[in-house]
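[Primary structure, fold]
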Amino acid sequence: LHLSHAKKKQKKKNRGCRCAWWRQYQGSKRRFITHQREDRMRPLLLKGHTRPLTFIKYNLDGDVLVSCAKDHRPTLWYADSGERIGTYKGHNGATWSCDITRDSTRLVTASADSTVKLWNLATGECIYTYEFDIPCRSVSFSLGEEYILLTTDAFMGVPPAVRILKHSKDTEEQTHEEVLLVNDAHPGRITRAMWGRLNKTFVTSCEDGLVRKFDASTGKLLNSVKIHNKSIQMMDMDRDQNTIITASQDKTSKLLDADTFEVLKTYQCDRPLNTAAISPIRDHIALGGGQDAASVTTSAGQAGKFEVVLYHKLFMEMFGTVRGHFGPLNFVAFSPNGKSFTTGGEDGYVRVHHFDSDYFEQEFA
């Protein structure tokens, strides 16, 4: 009886020690989890638009970015802090795209109100307005900013077209001079147009799933390749202009050779894609899209698949997703230094994501 009582006493003592140790372990575990959460990526949520986002553009230095939306007012932000600098007032329709000069002095915007406007990036002053009779969509400066590449939509029997406009750095000499017009090569809406190397060519993507290359001086069609079965929603080029990334409603993204349009890689996704971007410093691809905006109210954010999806460019493997938007993702753009990326969604929010240290230390393939 004495030995049995001693064993029970010792057992109770051990249980007390275990409880104390367990409480200490759980406390340290909580502190570890809290520390992990502090190191986790915390996006900057920028609320400056009342309508869905359409386009995001960083300047060459990556210290500011411009967001375009359907609410008529492009907005300028500090890229690091997310502080809003100001808005550009003047358009009366959705602003579909924009571009910034290399010296960050001028901004050009294309709008559904049938105008293309030149702005002073710092002051917000409208310098010049190109006026058309049809909605304007994609716009970009040439290398050297001597020309502006513009696409216009089909409207009232007028076919979609690609136009090259003259751009003058002297405000007094600026006129509405149209250097080139190509209006017989695209059966549907032109979703994106980009300059090729040394401004000798330009590339377009279209709703018919084709990517086309034209001679910039004559407008002659040089190459045309069927890339997707459905509409190409967005197209982007890497900073060296060697490869092109596409995003399509057929739930695939493809990496193309910029010269031959040969399909180098195909990224299979589980959602319709609206946007794609190539990291400037790592072999990574960012894709985004999601359920059609008309059906968003009938499903949760997770079911709608509104996350940013990160793929390895070479191995075509998905290694991560970034949640946040509660509507389809319309645009994603990497910063020029590759240390952050910005997204714009149907929900009207701009989210700036700065990568944590793990992103640069770990290998994902």
Remarks:
- The two ends are 64 Å apart (CA to CA).
- Confidence is low (pLDDT under 50) at residues 15-39.
- The first strand starts at residue 44 and ends at 46.
- Helices lie at 2-39, 301-304, 357-361.
